[in-house]
Amino acid sequence: MESHSQPKYDNVPLEDQDEAGSSTEVDESLMGDEKKWHEHDFQPRRKRSTRSRMISALRSGVNTLLLLATLGLLVRQQLQTAPTLEVGSDFTGFAPKFSPKITKFDMEYKYQRENTSEFFTDEVMHAWNDLMPSTS
Q: Taking a C-beta distance cutoff of 8 angstroms, is the pair 114, 130 a contact?
């Protein structure tokens, strides 16, 4: 359904009335609704209710209190534990502590040879295959 309303500019004359040149003045009657301001664009904000402001202030206070409590607990934990920083250790102190044990591995020549070209010999491959679980 097409609506056939009158063209927007049907009352504008086709000939220029001004002989001296073009004019930038526009007849306000031609502007229609475009000149009017929309009322909802410039309404002042409604003030927040006292109850809403109190809830917002209470929420901010609770957030601040929880932040300070968390910070206090972290500082207390750090002061109770003596800082022992080792390379590769857990600096947070939450992981369990294990006593270090140094283990030295000696090369077993049945898995690895001094000469790398001998790595794929039947003897070395058989030693590696013995480490794998049997499939049957």
A: no
Task: From residue 20, give the alpha-carbon distance in Å to each of 17, 23, 30, 57.
Answer: 9, 9, 22, 66
What is the CA angle 18-12-26, rounded to 5?
Answer: 60
Contact present, 22 and 16 (Cβ < 8 Å) = yes
**What's the rounded Cα separation, in Å, for the pair 108 and 111?**
6
- Tell me the CB-side half-sphere exposure of residue 22, using CA atoms within 13 A: 1
33 has a pLDDT exceeding 70: no
The pair of three-digit structure tokens given for residue 105, joined into one six-digit string: 């591995």
Distances in Å between the alpha carbon of 16 and those of 24, 25, 28, 60, 84? 12, 13, 17, 66, 92
Q: What is the pLDDT of residue 66?
A: 97
What's the pLDDT band for 115 if we cut at 50, 70, 90? confident
CA 66 to chain centre: 23
The answer to whether the CB of 28 falls within 8 A of the CB of 35 is yes
